[in-house]
Amino acid sequence: MKSIIAYHKSGESSKQRDYRNVVITQAILVSIALLLEDMVNLFGMGAERQMFYSVFLMLGAVYYYMLWDLVRNFVQQPVLVYGILLLMLFGFLTLFIAEFPFGKIVNDPSSYLITVHTLLFLTEIFVMYHAFRDVFRKDEVSYGKLWGSVSLFIMMAIAFASIYDILSILQPGSFGIALEPGFPSFSESLYFSVVTISGGVPDFSEVSHFIRDIAALEAVLGALYLVILIGRIIARV
Q1: What are the backbone angles phi and psi of residue 109, rounded to the nearest 5°?
Q2: How far apart are CA 155 and CA 54, in angstroms?
Q3: By CB distance 3.0 to 4.6 Å, which of 18, 65, 193, 220 could disulfide with 160?
Q4: What whole-number distance in Å separates Cα of residue 85 and Cα of residue 37?
Q5: What is the pLDDT along the chain (237 residues), one digit of tens a residue?
Q6: How many angstroms separate the CA atoms of 117 and 111, rounded?
Q7: What span, in angstroms and rounded, lies between the C-alpha atoms of 192 and 176?
């Protein structure tokens, strides 16, 4: 019987470390995005809200860098690699302007947030395409590929959250409740996406028809991904 996990004692590859770092960053980012607002309200830390939002922005910057670090594993053309870096720097700068925690730089951040989500979504699609090919190619199943499979699953949830947030900004009330564009809207979009891709039913009774249809697509893709992943592992036994 072939070993399910082929691990070489010579040490972790650069790609494996990158996958692992992306997963850790994603886990922290998603946890803070989902829990931050409730924790602030629960412990009466409204005065420290700006500090926590600053931490979220810094984690966002780390996630952007981790995505770019993955890109370097898949792309050999320096022009493309650094072009994506400039695009991501522009995206983060736009996010910083829209979500500046210590005051308003722009009165209406909607167009900035749509730009941020669009660039992030396109970058994640690019990374997911290459990561999927790497994780499911025909060779041994390594720890690095398992980290990669986890990062892909979480990345899909974040990518769909960007779609939901864009729709929420373009069509206020799409979730059946009034949401402020920015962190509050993204937090609800991320919750909706994580629950949907995990096979659950989000607790939103009046979502728009468009969001409902996209959620159905996300649920199918999430289920198919898990089936393919399990089949890939079993095939190596």
Answers
A1: -85, 5
A2: 22
A3: 193
A4: 30
A5: 344 334 333 334 677 788 888 999 999 999 888 887 777 777 766 556 677 778 888 888 999 999 998 898 888 899 999 999 999 999 999 999 998 888 888 888 999 999 999 999 999 999 999 988 888 876 666 677 788 899 999 999 999 999 999 999 999 888 888 888 888 899 899 999 999 999 887 777 788 889 999 999 999 999 999 888 887 776 655
A6: 10
A7: 12
